[in-house]
Please model this.
Amino acid sequence: MAKTLHPTWPPGVVEMVCKVVASTEYPGLTGGEIGRLLWMRGIEDVAPGATKWRRLEAALQTRQQRDRASTA
Model:
């Protein structure tokens, strides 16, 4: 069965989602958890030395550009 592709998210939306997911004010993900999550989803960690939200944003933006979809 063919995989349904979803339109890419605008950069501002990706940024805000990543800031919430990696937030230190809430029970956000740790750096190690972000690395494992990306690995589990097969998404390349393109900025492992960046802050948590920037690392996650770079990985998701890169994957969206590659796939031309937000499906990953």
Remarks:
- The chain has one domain: 11-66.
- Residues 6 and 67 are 10 Å apart (CA to CA).
